[in-house]
Amino acid sequence: FFEPSPLDASKLVVNLAKELKPIPPPESLVFGETKTDHMLIVHYDPAKNGWSAPEIKPYGPLSIDPASSCLQYCPNVFEGMKAYIGPQGEARLFRPQMNMERLVRSAARVALPNFDETALLALIKCLVTVDKRWIPTKPGYSLYIRPTIIGTRTNLGVRFSDSATLYVIMSPSGPYFKNGLHPISLLAISDAVRAWPGGTGSHKLGLNYAPAFLPQIDAIKKGYDQILWLLETESEDTKKKDYRITEVGAMNVFLVTKRDDGDLDLTTPPLDGTILPGVTRLSTLNLADAHTRGEICFPNVPPTLKIHTHEKRITISHLRSLWSEGKVLEFFGVGTAAILAPVQKIGWEGEDMVFPEGQEKGGLGMIGKAILETITSIQTGQLKFKDWSVICS
Ligand code: COI
């Protein structure tokens, strides 16, 4: 009978920690391990007319009923964002509106309550400002931000959760992979799939990640770093069974190939419902297009070299034939956490495809390096590109 009260940033209550934690040196940081002093929390309860007043309070455990639906049926969604320090000492976020939009979409997919994206972004900016001293300034380091929504309904019946908790925690971080920026190896598998048509792979749900843990352990036992996720398909020309490439570990995937006219093709799988619409994925496509249109110049890439972007299916057999013809220049994963991870080899059906990257520091090829450097310069406010870098004020 009433409109639920919206998420209202103007109702923010701030309870600062009495004691602040010492900040560890950046070199000692392990991705996701250390948390900042504060967190943001807000509850949704239909009996209390919707969203409560948001609160910034000292970081600490949540107290939830053991029957909570997030623990039983997994209505859990999250985002990954990063904050950087800009040239004037200001805190900056990278294309944060995209994370807010995706969080709303993810929440809707598991019937969690909706919220006002602008209000949540304003609250995240406040939280980042409160814990600004935690943003590392060392190149390659940033403050990882994890907005999360969990269903808190305490009835064990299988039904959507009509109550929820939204919280945001933050973690100062360096390189995502423990060996830093180095080329990774992938094991392509087809007996386990990350996502499927009609499934939830295009949403950022906690439940998409746990099924990857066991295949990941198997890949490591076989000497590879990450999984290359495939999905059964039919070859376009031969109509025989084939497998299309979907994602690398928890990242979107890009392939750089040589064209007969001397230009380059930069290809990533299309957003067909099985691919997570990554912010770094879209930024990679946008920046390559901007380079080709002459709007920006990629570092150490000839301005006349055109990079043609494609959102197109890549099958593993096509990749193998491009590789055997020597046309694969680079293969890399992109995501918020790692930004860009160069791939050195892919194991498939007992054979390793080894790519020509690895000559340069970090195993980066020319395009991967240019994209990584350009995105980082925009994130840290050194390079202005559209309104991608947003100041927290
Ligand atoms: C990301 O790159 O942002 C990811 O999704 C990986 C992860 C830490 C969940």
UniProtKB/TrEMBL annotation:
SUPFAM superfamilies: D-aminoacid aminotransferase-like PLP-dependent enzymes (SSF56752). Its EC number is 2.6.1.42. The keyword Protease does not apply. GO terms for cellular component: mitochondrion. One of its GO terms (biological process) is L-leucine biosynthetic process. Keywords: Amino-acid biosynthesis, Aminotransferase, Branched-chain amino acid biosynthesis, Pyridoxal phosphate, Transferase. This is Branched-chain-amino-acid aminotransferase.
